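Amino Acid Chain and Its Fold in Token Form
===========================================
Purpose: to set a sequence beside its fold so the mapping can be learned.
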Amino acid sequence: MDEIFGIPAPLLFGQLLLGLINGAFYALLSLGLAVIFGMLNVINFTHGAQFMMGAFVAWMLLNWAGLGYWWALLVAPLVVGLTGVIIEKTMISRLYKLDHLYGLLLTFGVGLVIEGVFRNEFGSSGMPYRIPAELQGSWDLGFMFMPIYRGWVVIVAIVACLATWLVIEKTKIGSYLRAATENPALVQAFGINVPRMMTLTYGAGVALAAFAGVLAAPIYSVNPQMGANLIIIVFAVVVIGGMGSILGSVVTGFTLGVIEGLTKVFWPEASSTVIFVVMAIVLLTRPAGLFGRA
């Protein structure tokens, strides 16, 4: 199996793997956005900065506290999720009864402030974050060598996405969340603290972004602009999958990552725009997105 469609097999499978990895990050980030929008009706433009904060917290834990990657996977989402809770309680909660535009403008501004603070403190150059010893090396698959860490990222992203979907769609907590988005007054009448639920939902969405940031730290250099480079693509993924659709975000994220990776092989010039072309086509044919509701 030296060539496939005239393309060297290692190149084709290498780009397919790269597409799956990008798709894993697209899926995790768009999942957090979909959770926040679906439950709170807030377009969270701070998401890219919170993704970056997850990577930076992992870097700080390693260099300042001596805590490695495995601790960072647990601690960083909790720390960044707590900052999300503070942002929601102090700012976003005041905008729920206003037009979506106010939330978009607020979160866009907060994201710029966070990015500016980190750029002022750490500069714009990237800082390395080493792969944990247990995940170094590669697997020989016969037709290609797969770096163990990159395979780990894809597997963990799939598990995290499925777990989030199951919690929201198949548990009592998820049913309360869905009901609160439809009729918060009725849910409140049953003794459920809806404001607290919405705060925790925002914190959970932010924690997902931070979790993705920790996974990304050993692959991309840790720098203040790493989230800004992804957030526009991730918003395109959310629009294509359907605003607020959990399943749509996951499926669309991985699919578009693979499409982007294959486009780099067969038509490299179009690889940076193919996702936006797909978004335009979807919006023309299904304005609510592939999995969204009108």
